[in-house]
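Quarterly update, task 2.4: protoporphyrin IX containing FE-bound model.
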Amino acid sequence: MKVFPLQSIAVKVFHWINLFSVSVMLLSGLQIYNANPVFGGREGLHLPPILLLGGWLAGGRDWHFAAMTLFSVNLFCYGLYVLLSRRWKIRFVSSRDVKALQGENVKRKFYSWHRIAYTAIVPVLLIAILSGIGMYKSAQFDWIVKLFGDDWQALRIAHFMTVPIVLTFIPIHVLLALRVGQKKLIESMFW
Ligand code: HEM
Ligand code: HEM
C-alpha cells in the first residue's frame, strides 16, 4: 500500500539505516563512556545497563567500531544523493524558511522549524564522525586532533556532546513531524 505523501526509496533507506546505526552508536558509545566517564573520570556519573550495549568496555568498542562504517557510509551516500538530486533545494532550510518565520502563517512556521531541525542535525552527525575519527586514528588524523586545540579532553567532550544533542533532537523532530503532517507523514518516512 502506498502511503502519502510519497518519500523516495533512497531517503527511506537512509532514514532506516541511520536510525538503526545511530542507536547502536549511542548505546555502545555510552558503554565506552561508562568505563571512564568523560566528566569526572572513573568516579564520574555511571549509566544503568539498560542504556548500554556491549556488556563491557571491549564489547562496547566492538559494537561502536562495527557500526561506525555503516553509519558513516550511509550518511555519505545520503549526502551524495541530496547533492546530485538537488534535494537540498526543496527539502532543506532556505531563505524561504527565514521569511516564513517572520510571517503570520502558523502552519508554515512549524514546517520551517521542522526543516531547520532536521537540517541542523546533519552537521552534528558530521561532528560525531570527525571527532570520532580523531580519537580512533589520532596519529594518522592528527590534523583533526589539532582542530580541537590538540586537546584530547576537548575531542572527547565534542564527541560526547553529540549524544545529548541527538537525544534532544529525536523527540523534537518527531513532534514537529506530527505537527506538520500527522501520523501520515511519519508513516510515509517508514513504509
Ligand atoms: C564514524 C563515527 C564515529 C566514530 C569513528 C567514533 C569513534 C569513537 C571512539 C574512537 C571513541 C573512544 C573509544 C575509546 O576510548 O576506546 C568513541 C567514544 C564514544 N562515542 Fe563514538 N564514534 C562515532 C560516532 C558516534 C556517534 C554517532 C555517537 C552518538 C551520537 C557516539 C558516541 C560515543 C560516546 C558516548 C563515546 C564515549 C565518550 C567518552 O566517554 O569518551 N559516537 N567513539
Ligand atoms: C537520530 C534519529 C534521526 C535522524 C538523524 C533523522 C534525520 C532526518 C532527516 C535528515 C530527514 C530529512 C530527510 C529528507 O527529506 O531528505 C528526516 C525526515 C523525517 N524524519 Fe527523521 N530522523 C531521525 C529519527 C526519526 C524518528 C524517530 C522519526 C519518527 C518516528 C522520524 C520521522 C521523520 C519524518 C516523518 C521525516 C519526513 C519529514 C518530511 O518529509 O517533512 N525521524 N529525518
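Highlight for this quarter: Residues 11, 15, 18-19, 22, 87, 91, 114, 118, 121-122, 166, 170, 173-174, 177, 185-186, 189 surround protoporphyrin IX containing FE (ligand 2) (CB under 6 Å).
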